[in-house]
Amino acid sequence: MSGVKQVQVTFDCAEPERLARFWCDVLGYVVPPPPARFASWDDFEDALPPERRGSAFACEDPDGTGPRLFFQRVPEGKEVKNRLHLDVRVGTGLVGAARVEALEAEGARLVGLGAQRVHLVRADGYDESCLVMRDIEGNEFCLD
Q: H or E element: which one contains 119?
């Protein structure tokens, strides 16, 4: 039995490129190069049938350590809470007020990118604080 070597996280969304570029800004990810025979992503898109243009986009960790994120257009909108979400680890090793300060600072930066602050979950003696957010299409994620 072989072990899994890589994981890709796939998002269903309305605007793949817009959402991918948002997550590039959040995580410091980059857009991968276009397929080998294309000089740019625009050239690649132009080669697709009209109904497939703008239907998918991706971003990846420039160091190759984090998972690739793939965004695919779907016809339906988001209606309920995510069953899976990303935790963006900005407060690792911090506790108390220092952790909340780091979460709030990163939350403010992400609001500037179009994210929405939902609420701060305060430490309860078992778990440290985290900040619940929504991306530009309403997908929940946490600053942890």
A: strand 116-121
